[in-house]
Hints:
By secondary structure, this protein is of the alpha+beta class. Helix content is 37%, strand content 13%. The chain is built from ten helices and seven strands. The strands form two sheets. It has a four-stranded antiparallel β-sheet, with helices on one face. Helix 3 (120-132) packs antiparallel against helix 4 (136-148) and helix 4 (136-148) crosses helix 6. The relative contact order is 0.07. Residues 216-264 are annotated as: Disordered.
Amino acid sequence: MTARWLATVADVHTIRDFRETPRDRHERERPHLLPLPTRDFDTALVVYRHVNVEGFLTHRLNHYSVPWSFIGQVLPVRIADGEVIVYSVGLEEVARHPLVPATRSGVRQSIKSHHPTGDPEERTRLLRQRFADLGPVGTAFLDGLLARQIQGKLQAQHLLALAAQYTRDDVRAALDRAVRFGAFSLAAVRRILAARARPRPRLDELAELHRDSLDPTLRDDVIGPRSTRDYQHLLASDEPEEPGDDTPPEDRPEHDAGRDPGPA
């Protein structure tokens, strides 16, 4: 019905303001029209979530597992139609789960391969990989922690989650101090960080995580704010000043007009 009405009535009716029909105007404008997008606009919600010590991130009071190696990181999460898709900092998909209905809470969506607790060697390998990212001091601390603590691996997991709240320099300094004094424990590092460092804001944490994924040309030349001196010329008036504006009143000619010249 609508198609027939458009073809026989609306599109052939002459518009008074343009003096032509919509069909004729469309044919005239067709060469200048841009094609429609080949894909629909993505309206999915994108949020950032912190991976806790158990390897889960939380969305609307429900928990979704991610690969165990991402403990302590803040990852982008895309909430699509009926799905939760988790990406790495490099925007590679690392996990996909069915979205838990909004009417439920406390549900844990877990994928078995995300948690290698059944393979101690794999768990140790992942821990060494994460601590190696902190430099030689990270490796030295992990070796001492595993050698002296019965639950060294569990403490290492908690330490990774704790380290995400501080800058890398602060974490390295805390680990270095712990190694020098032989304080190989989570409690010791927590005390050092509490006394000598401040937790960083979440935006700073995201900036540090994404810095390595930026194009090298963007990382090398950091653009800072301009000095206010660069804008001072905008405050200057372009109109020339009238002569005599800054002349003291006693030196102006009109001021001398009524003055007694004195004896000749």
